[in-house]
Design goal:
Chain lengths: 142, 517
Amino acid sequence: MAEGTVSFDVSAPVDKVWAFLSDLRKVGSCVPGVQSVDVLDDKHANWQLKMKIGPLSQQILVRTETIEMIEPSHARFRGVADNMEMTGTIEVRPKGEATAVTYTMAVQTKGALARILDNFVKSKLNSQTEEFAANVKRALEP
Amino acid sequence: MVSFDVIVIGGGHNGLVTAGYLAKAGARVIVLEKRPLVGGACVTEEPWPGFRINTFAYVCGLIRPQIVEDLRLTKFGYEPILYDPQYFIPFPDGRSITLWLDEDKTIQEISKFSNADAKAWPKYTRFWNEVLDLVEPTMMAPPVPIADLFGMFSGPEAERLLRDLFLMSAKDFLDEWFESEEVKAALATQAIIGTFMGPYSPGTAYVLGHHNIGILDGHREVWGYSKGGMGQIAEALSKSAQHFGAVVRTGVGVKRILVEGDRAVGVETEPGERIDAKIVASSIDAKQTFLRLVPPEATDSDFRDRVRKIRTKGAALKFNAALDALPDYTASPGAPRPHHNGTVDIIPSMDYVERAYDEAKYGAFSSRPFIEAVFQSAVDPTVAPPGKHTMTCFVQYAPTELKGTTWDAFKPKAAETVLDTIEEYAPNIRRVVKHWQIISPTDMERMIGLTGGNIFQGDITPDQIFSFRPMPGWANYRMPVKGLYLCGSATHPGGGVVGAPGYNAAHVILEDLAAAK
């Protein structure tokens, strides 16, 4: 299983950060490779991702479900795609006038190519979570 | 009678990697190495006092960083030295190309031959960088069918990559990128190293890719030295394996693999000792394992026939020398100069090397061979006496069998050809060579069991890689005799001092040991 965690501070109040992170369309604009987010209801969404590995790219449909939501501090979700399952958490807490965010993503690969996919994901996950953090900061900070 | 969980046959780098990971996981492991020193093709020896020579493999960079980290190789003495420039290619007209670590300096060099090629260079290196992103994760895992791998992707970009990497010759591939014959020649070297094919042969573009997987000191697609010689890598692997509890015995060859019923149960050593184990992992090649060590009745004739058909032709010899001084190249006079730090290739054109291959196809040593020379002492003074130097040359093409003679008889003539060829570019070469030795394809088989003198334990061409390695149906390290595994370069992802075959085999063995409990 591949896991990536990133902790970062956003120069914005908790309420503003939480409102942003609980809006899947806005979050989608920050996740690397996301091309569209189709929100089905308050718990379910379909995400279209373009995953680039070296010179090649692959379109992936990820179906997500929010499985835990404690406003305005904690959310947990899971996602399912053809060859992988993922779980993610977002923790948000005030830090002075700013907000501390911790984002964790764990990916479990499946099928005949699982071990290679796992290596692919491991090689990308840290940079992807860091890019996510940078995008969130860019979107929220003045 | 002695008993272990796993016997590893062969103390080459892959055998030691397998032993290291197995021992680290708690298995009781013994490594049996025929020669008095560990390393297989990754050894440094002292044929002349004070001159430490890389007898076979001569540059590092391919060993996977994860293995270096997991087995703590730097703690046990492995110290890579990234050299710069990487390549110097002198041409007969007195011009030369130097390929530096610094991209701008390399572009400047290439622009001496073609502005268009200089412009293409960053895109070319970016292409290989991206291919490495794709290939690297596939190396540290058992191979999957190529069709499944490419099935993950679709579209013209995947089609094009499949065509470029698996179907093209190095010549056609490089023709699509560059216009200068000199630039293409400089890059073609990596497409034919160790492979009994010329750059016009389809499939050599993949060989080019295989040699672009190097990572050292944060740089990609690079080569370096192992301080003190390549043997330091093997020594570090051996110390690591022993640190984790493995037993490493040298000077102990294996006479046969013992099979009872349908299962390997141990080995008989050449001195006649029986050692039992739950598992036997052979890091020597498939031919040596199945045609020499495993009793014929343990496998069916169809399997043995397929083993015989694995392509293991030798392509090269080594010319190793002790030097009184560095060679002085007409194309860049003076010594020492920066170009002595790295690889010096004599390959004036792709036609030149194709002609060298043409001769070897019909059983002759190339009258003007491709020569890749390195002078490790220029950057690592530990390998030669003060003021002296080492030279090790990879010389191609040297076919496994010479028509009308033997390698043992032909060595003096081969040495003359090598020196004549170098002399055309460095006229002082005969004056500075103090001692020399030739390691022929016959020697490679005799000394370290590389069938035919094939340095990769089987060509790394598209028909013998991934799930085709060592042969279709038997690519996941498990062999048809239960409890018997291959863990050397004969398996995915192939040859070179990479370590990934040993890593992958160890993990498959650990899965099976756990399942058997």
